[in-house]
Fold this sequence. Notes:
Elements (H helix, E strand, L loop, with lengths): L1 E8 L3 H9 L3 H5 L6 E6 L8 E8 L2 E13 L3 E8 L4 E12 L2 E11 L12 H38 L5 E5 L4 H12 L3 E6 L13 E6 L3 E2 L10 E4 L12 H22 L8 E7 L10 E2 L9 H14 L7 E7 L1 E3 L4 H11 L12 E2 L1 E3 H13 L5 E5 L5 E2 H12 L9 H8 L1 H7 L4 E2 L2 H5 L9 H9 L3
Parallel strand pairs: 8-9, 8-12, 9-10, 12-13, 13-15, 14-21, 15-19, 16-18
Antiparallel strand pairs: 1-7, 2-3, 3-4, 4-5, 5-6, 6-7, 10-11, 17-20
Amino acid sequence: MHFEFSSDFESPQSDLFSYHAKPGALDRLIPPWENVTISQRSRSIETGAEILLRQRLAFFSLPWLARHTGYDPPRFFKDIQVYGPFKSWEHEHRFEELDCDRSKLTDSIDYSLKVLDRLPCTLGLGPAAHGWIQSQLAAMFRYRHRVTAQDLSFQHQLRTMIGTAPIRIAVSGSGGMIGRRLCALATVLGIEVVRILRPESKISEAELPLDSVILHPTHGFDHPERLEGVRSVVQLGGVGIASGRWNSRTKDKIFRSRVDGTKTLITHLLGLSIPPERFVCASGIGFYGSKGEFCCDESSPKGEGFLCDVTEAWEESASQYQNESRRVAIGRLAMVLHPREGALAKQLPLFRTGLGGRVGDGKQYWSWIHVDDAASALIWLSLHPGISGPYNLASPNPVTNFEFTKTLARVLHRPAFLPAPAFALRTVLGAMADELLLASTRTTPDKLLQTGFQFRAPTLPDALEQLLGKG
């Protein structure tokens, strides 16, 4: 069987090929709805390079070893399946120059199936399987080409803003949902990334081939020389706020992981011979508390509640880095959407079975942001000249919980008629229900938009269709 997918790009052929040759390209291009991980990888796409993927299906893990068998930059590269779910698989990536600023990418795949090819045609299973695979490939490559175009457009924006000189940034919290996406995005943009890790962190051979330093709380970085020339540091560390029911011990962990962790990081950054000129600290729109229909911009006052107090203390600890030569930017993140992690992942099982519905009365505002917009915005804050202070990292189109659940159900082609009553949520989750699910926080990214930042997914249907492969 044969599958082919082509798109035109507003980028030179060399840039388009170079994007795919970067170490983070595959991390960027694996669709987020697919439970696929990279187990082993070579550091290039040249002939002979291999990559081992594992796809999890329920309780099973299916391996897929691919080997690159052709490499002719900037015209094409090719890979084949050594072993995996198909009987055979050959994938050729062809890059064509349309003019000096435009190019075309064609993904051409020849494959055959193992078991279904041998089934009697009268069963109708073979053609049905081929049809299903073709539809899955179409969804995957629509996603891949869309992300490629968005990343290249973002790269052009950054080059226009800061030029093409080499850039180095450091990331603390690189193993989290946003951190992984940010590191992969930075690498395909040509930005060198240094990971700041805790002593207990473990790095597998399959992770992005990035420099790293270990930060020991008492005696600092194990290799401080690796941070020389780093322009910005992005701080994403912190215990998940929705990892379990809140009690005094959980709240203490949430608070200390953010506030004390940021203080420790800053202390040792200031001990470097030349500290980075920019510190970008993630925070949250929980700073504003529950404000009903009131629309919060960056000048809105702090609210009341545990999350309000945590974010205020977190931001105050980050602000200690700022002086006449160093700037601090705060990224107040809304609910970050990813189909396999975070709040959206927790909702999807119910909605996919048609058992989803509004939370409480559904009138509370849920501000949100696509995970790639969150990663892009943090890179933007770390590189844009003149930026300092708080920035709301949220879609310009917040929705009520009722609108959110209705949109999610429509994208999944499922009903959404089973509400989760407020009293039941409070019984199960306690105070966390009021501050995370029932609070109404309507935010707008006014300051971010004023800097010229462009959202990849400005509306909720855009975001959900992209993340779930329905667009």
